[in-house]
Amino acid sequence: MPNEKKYDRILDALHQLLEDQTIQNISVSDIAKKAGMGKGSIYYYFPSKDAILDALIERNYEQPLKTAKALAGQTEISPFIRMAMILQACRSSSAAFLNHSGTASRTGTSAQDTAFLHQKYMNHLIAELKPSLTEIINQGIAVGDIHFEYPAALAEIVLIVLAVKLNNTFLSATAEDSEDTIRGLAALLEKGTDIPRGTLSYISSETLFCR
């Protein structure tokens, strides 16, 4: 039976190594040494370095995902407020991880290395949050707050746009430019889902861009 403490030690080791090394330069042997265990023990828990990175990202998003699932069931709260709360939780989690790992400010980090880590985040965020966001949108449709025929597609579109803009890696932009994009997305959502103008206005301000 896997040892949970050893599992977390492996993830912690990779997280610490990311503080002063690029992903490409970190080996499984480096992770094992940092974790204080043999290389064979690493492969008992993970088949590859990439799998360790995936698990580290999943652990970092564990709390936001729990928040998303819990919010999906709180139908007494407006679906739009719940959407904003989910997105803010993930933005905060992503920022904390990237700041701790040093990829946002380390001088030796390549653009390719940074983009790779952000892509991992985006893939996980979109895949894991889409079901909860779709459920919330469906709830809004059921009570007449939202009018749209493709709730799952809408959830995916929102997550893709926000993941790209909030991570600010693939399309570098100032906070003001990003906020303009989010405002435009909010306006399109309001018009496309037949909800009152201004309903989503709080999603495009400090809710998502607080530091």
Could you list some keywords that capture this structure?
211 residues, mainly alpha, 10 helices, 69% helix, 0% strand
Question: What does the secondary structure layout of this molecule look like, with pairings?
Answer:
Elements: H1 4-17, H2 28-35, H3 39-45, H4 49-60, H5 62-72, H6 79-101, H7 111-142, H8 151-167, H9 175-192, H10 206-209
Helix pairs in contact: 1-2, 1-4, 5-6, 5-7, 6-7, 6-8, 7-8, 8-9
Summarize the structure in words.
This protein is mainly α. Helices cover about 70% and strands about 0% of the residues. It contains ten helices and no strands. The chain has helices at about 5-15, 30-35, 40-45, 50-60, 60-70, 80-100, 110-140, 150-165, 175-190, 205-210. Helix 5 (about 60-70) runs parallel beside helix 7 and helix 8 runs antiparallel to helix 9 (about 175-190). It is elongated. The relative contact order is 0.10. The model has no long low-confidence stretch (mean pLDDT about 80).
